[in-house]
Amino acid sequence: xxxxxxxxxxxxxxxxxxxxxxxxxxxxxxxxxxxxxxxxxxxxxxxxxxxxxxxxxxxxxxxxxxxxxxxxxxxxxxxxxxxxxxxxxxxxxxxxxxxxxxxxxxxxxxxxxxxxxxxxxxxxxxxxxxxxxxxxxxxxxxxxxxxxxxxxxxxxxxxxxxxxxxxxxxxxxxxxxxxxxxxxxxxxxxxxxxxxxxxxxxxxxxxxxxxxxxxxxxxxxxxxxxxxxxxxxxxxxxxxxxxxxxxxxxxxxxxxxxxxxxxxxxxxxxxxxxxxxxxxxxxxxxxxxxxxxxxxxxxxxxxxxx
Length: 306
Fold this sequence. Notes:
By secondary structure, the protein is of the alpha+beta class. Helices cover about 25% and strands about 25% of the residues. It contains ten helices and 13 strands.
């Protein structure tokens, strides 16, 4: 016989939580003054639509404000690799927003029109400049939020010796040099210190090799070299005569060397299992590591192994 559908037609539809929230108050109705404002209206929307809205937030300050107001949205944007929320300037904007809240003593009061923003600190700018993801295209944003202290860039040199430089900018006065990049080779030099006394602290090569330095300006000495395969070399000695004293490998091996620069000899190898092997003999470590054993004077002999 025919199926009775009257009950099915009259049965109320089952609504999702978001739909129930949406129907609880029509968007067109004005909110009463004593009505508590919602904490997260975007939660009523589909996740795909929330992401589209977050992608449209194109200012770092706004990205930070959204994330602080509704942490769930910040985590959603970060988890879906939205570029603005993963850029190092997002962290700068977050620190600035938090500093503004602390200065006001009220985490909820919005900044009044014409109220000055808390300036970005020199430490923040130096940290941003040292980040490999930093881009000069973002300098206008920094200048807008912190005109008294921001970053500037320029080109010096001619031909194959042209370099792009970044420096601190204090109003109209150029400040300390932060980094230089060879436009031909792609090598980047990083500096620290006050204007006129900048010293080199790191060099990044296009191959991925990174060198770290210590010492005052004009006397910087190489102390460490990092390679893409995870190998790390440690150096000691004055500038120009830095010798390799230790090499750590990604597999856990640790080799120790003695001798002057260019004549280092391997004296000990420590293994991940706790074993240690000792060596004696003429210098050959550099020749072996360079893949040229024929140039080694003679082979080291193993003394003990523990």
